[in-house]
Batch of 2 targets.
Target 1
Amino acid sequence: MKKMNEMIKNLVRKYDTTNPIELANHLGIIVKLNPYSEKTKGLYVKILDIPFIIINSNLKKEDQNFLLAHILGHILLHFNQDTIFAWENSVFLQGIQENEANEFALRLIAENQTNPINYQLTF
Ligand SMILES: [Zn+2]
C-alpha cells in the first residue's frame, strides 16, 4: 500500500524517530503497561479525551513493541475522533484492518533496520 508507506516516511521524517513509544507521545498518546490475562493483548482507550494505549506487560518485549506499532497503525489508519475504545483480540476490528495494522507495524520496524530499536516500555 503506497499511501501507507508515504504516511510512515512522513511521520518518521517529521518526528525524527521510528520508536513507536516516541511516535505515540508526539501524537499525544500515553503508553502504559498492565499485566492483563492472555486474552487481552492490549487496548486503546480515551479517558477524559486523553488517548491511552495499554499493552499487556506479560507479552515478550518484541511482541509489546510490535503490538504498540500495530495499534498506532489502527489509530492512524482506522480510528477517528469518535473512537473511544478498541480491544485487541476482539470482534471490534475487521480482518482487513488487522492486516493493514500489521503491515503498518512491519513497515515502521523496517524503516529502522539499519539502526535497530533499543528501548523498553516502562510505566
Ligand atoms: Zn489490531
Target 2
Amino acid sequence: MFEDIPVDVSPMYEGERIRSANMFVELAGPKSIGAELVQVKDNVEDGKIEVKGPELADMEEGEIYPLGILIEIQGEKLEKELEGVIERRTHELCNYIKGFMHLNQRDQIWCRVSKEAKESGFKLEHLTKALSTLFREEFPIIEAISITILTDKAEVEVFLEKAKSLYEERDARARELSDEDVDVFYGCVMCQSFAPTHVCVVTPDRTALCGAINWFDCRAAAKMDPEGPIFEIEKGEILDEVKGEYENVNLVVADRSQGTFDRIYLHSVFEYPHTSCGCFEAVAFYVPELDGIGIVDRDFKGETPLGLPFSAMAGQCSGGKQVEGFTGLSLEYMRSPKFLQADGGYERVVWLPKEIKDALVDYIPADLIDKIPTEEDVNSIKEIRTFLEEKEHPILERLKVSTEEIETDEKPIETPELEEIEEMDTREVPTSPVAYASEMTLPTSTGMKIILKNAKIYAEKVIIKRK
Ligand code: SF4
Ligand SMILES: [Zn+2]
C-alpha cells in the first residue's frame, strides 16, 4: 500500500520522537508558523497532491520552516461537522510515518523530519501520499481526498489566517449551548496512544482540552462511528452541578481509564480535576501562597510567577495524570460561564499571560479585568500579592478565610517536585508502546487462547528471562 514511500508507515511508529540532534528540519512549531485544516467540499479532485513551496531537498539541515496542511475531502455522508474530528486525526496519522513527528493540532502544530528519513529519500510529497491513503482507510465515508502542503512563508501566512477564522466559526457555534441543555456528553480517547489512561469528557461548556474538538464535533463523530474513539456518555444522575460531577461520567471514565480514575470534576482543579493528556492549550495551576489559580498557555515563552515555564507546568500533569491543583484546558473553555466555576471562576484567577487576557477580554467579568495581573505587571508571588491588594481583587477575602482554615485544619496542596523535562517532551509526553501487534495469540494455562488484534502494549518494565 505504501510501496512508493521510502520509509515505513505503520501505527507502531506513533510514539517515535525526533530530538533536535536527530532532526533534518523542523516545520511549524513555536519558532515558526503553521496550521492544519480539513475542509469538506464539493468537486474535490480525488488523489490530487501538491507541495507549494520548498520541498525537503530545498531546505537547509537544522533549519525551521513554516508548514500548512490542507486536506480537502468529499463524500455523500460527510458532514461539515465532521471536519474538526477528522482534522484531529492528522496528528495520529502523520505519526504513522517513520521519521516524521507531528505534535498538537490546529495552528499549534509542530513537526520534525528525521535525518534518516531525509537520507532514505523521504519528501513532503510522500507525506501527502501517505496521508491520502491513511485518511481514506480510517474514514471509508471519504470518497475523494486532495492534500496540499504549503511551505512558502507568504502562502502559509494567508492559510493560517483562513484556518484561524474557520476554527473560530466552529468554536462560536458551541458557545450557544450549555451543559444543562443536553442529556449526553461525549468521551474521547484519541490521546490514549500516548496517555493510556486519559479520557476527555467533552461537554457544551467544556470544549476538549486540545481545543480542537467541541460537543458538536463529537456528536457528529459518534454518529458516524459509534465504535470509534469518540463515544456518547449519558449524563446520568447529577452528583454536583457546580463542580460538574455526574454519576455516569464517573463510571465511563473508570471504564475507559482501565480503572485508574473513577471521579472527575469538570469544573474544578481541586480534588478530582479532569485528567490531562499533553496536548492541552493551557494549564491551570494552583498557587498555594495566594490560594488562587494561575493560567499559562503554550505560547507563553517566559516563566510564570512560580518561576516555571509552561513546559514545566505541563510536565506536572501530562501523560493522562489526575493531579490535584493542575488541569490542562482549552482557551475556549475559558470563554464558558462555567470556567472553573466550583473554584470561583475568574474571581480565583490571580495571574494570566497578557496575550490570553487580551484574547478573553469579552469573557472576563468587567469588574475583574484590571484586577488580574499579567507578566507585564508582576514577576513574583510577592508582586502579585501587592498588585491584588492595590486593585482589591476579590481573592483577598477568600485568602483571609483560607488562611484561618489552614491554621486550624486544612493541609495545603503542595506543588510537586519538578523533574527535568526536555523541551519537546513536555508538549505531549508520549509513552511509546513496548510492543505493537497486528495479531498476537497468548497461550493460557486453561487451554483458552487470548487473541490480541491491533494491540499496543504499554508497560512500566519489561523483564526478559533466558529459559
Ligand atoms: S485532547 Fe481529548 S478530545 Fe482532543 S484528541 Fe485528545 S483525547 Fe480527544
Ligand atoms: Zn491530548
